[in-house]
Amino acid sequence: MSLAPTISVIMPAYNSAAFIARSIHSAQQQTVRPLEILVVDDGSKDNTAEVAAECGDLVRVIRQANGGPAAARNHGAREARGEWLAFLDSDDTWLPVKLERQVAAMEDSITLLHAYCVQDKCCKLAPRETDFTMLWDANRIATSSVLIRKSAFDAIGGFDEDRSIMAVEDYNLWLRLAHRGARMRVIPEELLDYTPGPNNLSGQFSRMLRSELNNVEKIRVDCGLSDQQVQGKLATIYSEWGEALFHIRFRVSSGRWSREIPGTGSAGCRGDCFKIRSRIRCTGFSICCLTRIHGSRPAGTGGSMTFPRSCGFNCVARMSPVH
């Protein structure tokens, strides 16, 4: 590793004119300055490219037809001149010392470094390094916090551009890297300010659930996973999405649910969501909702099966908006 590693910032952008300047400025203001900031305009219908170009220092704008965030990041990586790639979404921002902290933690055997989000205050107990088992349990890596060796990124083929896994293409890459033994180190500091995308999250449930399920199949084939590993992961996905959908539906129609579920009392506050969830001994409600979305049930989900729960680090609010 060189004493002064060169870093290319890769920023995919789609209709981001209203907020991209803030993200670019956070990269420009790093205490360890990057070599370049590559903004890949993914077929925006607004003036994203013009706003980015006006930010000046270090910025190079690349235009492409709309291909999704994976294609945009890959395009930026192909154009990058740095030894390391730092991904930053156009609606997120870095704290000024983000790159400085990651550069200080570099070792010759480290492939990827990531950090906590300002919003992740309850997730500080994770081990210093992230392996496949931890990632298979839940995605613990925020894309906009990642700094990765370009050589490793190129060797594995970058992000999978298959639109069937859009919104989890980042998780797919981390899993493939980890399964091949890449060392991934977390910096135990809040170095990223994550901003949820403007799209309506509940309106994307069907699309994002399908992406997660398709990703499980891709990783099963790519990594040769056992049936037990796959079934456990599918159960976790259905459980988490069922709970998330329950919370959304509950907030929308809290009065009706308070009448239909005995003993919940007033249903106007968030705390009651957890009271109600604890009363549901079987997964019938979650599966019922997800069956309407996905069109099928996961294997073995009848009766009183209890689904495992992840640590919640990769909560629904952390999902990336899709292009």
How would you describe this protein?
The chain is an alpha/beta fold and 323 residues long. It folds into two domains: 7-193, Spore Coat Polysaccharide Biosynthesis Protein SpsA, Chain A (Alpha-Beta Complex), CATH 3.90.550; 202-318, no CATH class. Helix content is 40%, strand content 15%. It has twelve helices and nine strands. It has helices spanning 20-28, 48-53, 69-79, 98-104, 132-137, 150-156, 169-179, 205-223, 227-252, 254-260, 271-279, 284-294, and strands at 7-13, 36-42, 59-64, 84-87, 93-94, 110-117, 129-130, 147-149, 183-193. Strands 1, 2, 3, 4, 5, 6, 7, 8 and 9 form a nine-stranded mixed sheet that branches. Helix 1 links the parallel strand 1 (7-13) and strand 2.
How many domains comprise the coordinates? 2
Helix content range: 25-40%
Q: How would you name the CATH homologous superfamily of the largest domain?
A: Spore Coat Polysaccharide Biosynthesis Protein SpsA, Chain A
Mean pLDDT: 79
Could you tell me the CATH topology label of the largest domain: Spore Coat Polysaccharide Biosynthesis Protein SpsA, Chain A
How many separate helices? Answer: 12
Q: Which regions contain 5 or more consecutive residues with pLDDT less than 50?
A: 199-203, 253-322
**How many strand units?**
9
Structural class: alpha/beta
Order of H and E elements: EHEHEHEEHEEHEHHEHHHHH
Q: Which of globular, elongated, flat, extended, rod-shaped describes the shape? A: globular
Strand residues, percent: 15-25%
Radius of gyration: 21 Å
Could you give the distance between the termini?
Answer: 36 Å
Overall CATH architecture of the largest domain:
Alpha-Beta Complex
CATH class division of the largest domain: Alpha Beta
